[in-house]
């Protein structure tokens, strides 16, 4: 009997170990992807530039490798961005006086057993080259983009209940043009989107602090995150950072804002602003590998949790 108990215990331990391995993010792939996407070759990934297009190719290739399904060829959903005035002498309302560039969101999906969908998003664009300096945007937002790839990899091997849409948004730095274009012309019915999980800056925090936005408006989204958070990972979660008019309000600071405006609930994950934010020093060499890895695992576990046990939405008017 004792022996058998031991055998069962051993099997249980192996199962638990296997399960935790199965849920883990591939740290080597995660960091290799981030090192690549935030290298000088991508020239800061500014929309409408060579570096921006290279980032689009990188993401299309990764999506194909992972086996995501396409809504459009090569996962690209083009949209127009009108930028700066190029001829000040003519009346402002004449469109040809403005420089037009194309942005491209890279969108793929894994069909679920349900048609209801969770959109997992991160913007991949950054500031480009300013003066003679390349702004590589490793944390902002190479980190969220490569986290999204890691999550897609997991679900390619573990079919989800909900349809999972992976959205790499372009032109967030130009006032969220990518997510606004996505929601203006969604590739799936908007009513099917039950949640947005948006990541913007996940790669470094001096105090191991990760903000979670959304629960101030959608309190039913807080328990799933708390449930999967393991204090042993050293991450300190902050939940109070999306109340409008508070000094650290994040409601309109990244692409989740476009979902929120369409009354789609969101969870946003991101670190506090740091000294390298929007500086050339936001480089791969300044990413905290352990923090980043744990943060990505936390988001992955959250997606697994809400996919399996989607929280009950209270039948009361949301605070907004
Ligand atoms: Zn950002």
From TrEMBL:
One of its GO terms (biological process) is proteolysis. This is M28 family peptidase. Keywords: Signal. It holds the Pfam family Peptidase_M28. Residues 105-301 form the Peptidase M28 domain. Transmembrane segments: none annotated. GO terms for molecular function: metalloexopeptidase activity. Residues 1-24 form the signal peptide. SUPFAM superfamilies: Zn-dependent exopeptidases.
């Amino acid at each position: 009997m004792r022996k058998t108990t031991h055998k069962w215990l051993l099997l249980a331990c192996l199962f638990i170990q296997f399960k935790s391995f199965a849920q883990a993010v591939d740290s080597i792939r995660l960091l290799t992807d981030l090192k690549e996407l935030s290298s000088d070759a991508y020239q800061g990934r500014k929309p409408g530039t060579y570096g921006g297009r290279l980032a689009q190719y990188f993401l299309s290739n990764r999506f194909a490798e992972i086996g995501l399904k396409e809504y459009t060829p090569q996962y690209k959903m083009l949209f127009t961005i009108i930028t700066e005035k190029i001829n000040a002498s003519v009346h402002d309302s004449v469109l040809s006086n403005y420089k037009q560039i194309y942005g491209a969101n890279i969108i793929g999906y894994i069909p679920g057993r349900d048609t209801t969908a969770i959109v997992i998003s991160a913007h991949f664009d950054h500031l480009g080259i300013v003066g003679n300096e390349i702004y590589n945007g490793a944390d902002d937002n190479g980190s969220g983009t490569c986290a999204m790839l890691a999550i897609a990899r997991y679900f390619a091997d573990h079919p989800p209940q909900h349809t999972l849409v992976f959205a790499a948004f372009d032109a967030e730095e130009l006032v969220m043009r990518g997510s606004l274009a996505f929601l203006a012309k969604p590739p799936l019915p908007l009513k099917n989107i039950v949640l947005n999980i948006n990541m913007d800056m996940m790669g470094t925090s001096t105090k191991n602090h990760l903000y979670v936005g959304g629960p101030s408006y959608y309190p039913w989204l807080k328990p799933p995150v708390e449930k999967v958070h393991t204090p042993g990972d050293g991450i300190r979660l902050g939940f109070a950072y999306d109340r409008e008019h508070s000094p650290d309000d994040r409601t309109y600071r990244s692409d989740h804002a476009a979902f929120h405006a369409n009354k789609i609930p969101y969870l946003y994950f991101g670190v506090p602003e740091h000294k390298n934010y929007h500086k050339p020093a936001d480089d791969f060499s300044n990413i905290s590998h352990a923090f980043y890895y744990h943060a990505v695992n936390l988001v992955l576990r959250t997606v697994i949790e809400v996919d399996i046990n989607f929280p009950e939405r209270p039948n009361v008017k949301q605070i907004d």
